Amino acid sequence: MNLSARSLIDLELADDIQRLLVETGLPAAALTREITETHMMADTTRTLVVLERLNDLGVPISIDDFGTGYSSLTYLKRLPVHEVKIDRSFVDTTSSDDANATIVRSIIDLARNLSLRVVAEGVEDGITWETLASLECDVAQGYYLSKPIPPDRLTPWLIQRRELHESLSAVERRAARIHAVG
After folding, report:
1. Among the residues of the chain, which ranges form H helices?
2. How many structural domains is the chain composed of?
3. What angle do CA 56, 86, 157 make, to 5 degrees?
4. 59 by DSSP, 3-state: which?
5. φ/ψ of residue 5, rounded to 5
6. Domain holding 38: CATH number?
C-alpha cells in the first residue's frame, strides 16, 4: 500500500494505522507500506519520525521504484526500511542491457548487505525471471508471474499457486535424494 508525500509527514498516521490494525485484527507485519524516494525528500525530518513510529508498530516499510529518485544512500541507512523495490526500468532489460544488469545486481548486493528484502518490479519474461533467480532476488512482480487478478479470483489463484509450489517442492526433494544417493 503506497504512502503519499502528505501521509509521510502526517504525525497522526501511525495512530490511525494502529487503530485500524486493532479494529481489523490484521497483524502489522502484513501491512507493508510503500514510499518513493521522491516522496521521502519533501520533509525528511517529519518523514523519519513517521516512519520510525510505523516501524515501532511493526509495519514493514518498502522503498518503491528504488533507483529512480534523487535520494542519497544515507536515507537507505537512516530510514527504518525493510525492503527495496527495484524499478521496472532497470529490471525489464537486465538480459539485454549490461548497464542495467549491473545496476540490478548492485542493488541486490547492497540490499542483502543491509539485511533488506529485494523485490524486482516488471518481470515480463522467463529470461528476466531466470536472471533474477541467479542473482538471488527475493521477490519478483510482473506479468510473467500474473496479470492483475480481480478480487474474486485471487483466493483460487493463490490456492493453485500454493499447490503447484508444494508439488514442485516434493519433486525437488525427490530429485535431491536421488542425486545424493546416485
Report:
1. 13-24, 37-40, 44-57, 73-78, 88-91, 98-113, 126-134, 151-181
2. 2
3. 85
4. coil
5. -60, -40
6. 3.20.20.450
Residue (of 41, 5, 8, 34) closest to 121 by Cα position: 34
What is the number of alpha carbons within 13 Å of residue 60 lying toward its C-beta?
Answer: 16
Residue 168 sits in which domain range? 149-182
Residues 84, 13: Cα–Cα separation, whole Å: 22
| 151-164 average pLDDT score | 86
3-class DSSP assignment, residue 83: strand
What cell does 100 get? Answer: 542495467
In this predicted structure, what is the pLDDT of residue 182? 38
- Confidence category of residue 132, pLDDT binned at 50, 70, 90: very high
User: Side chain identity at 67, as an amino acid letter?
Assistant: G
Q: Dihedral through CA 83, CA 164, CA 124, CA 126, nearest 10?
A: 110
**Do 85 and 144 fall into the same domain?**
yes
Residue 136 has pLDDT above 60, yes or no: yes
The pTM (predicted TM-score) of the whole model is 0.80
Q: What distance in Å separates the CA atoms of residue 112 and residue 106, rounded to the nearest whole number?
A: 10
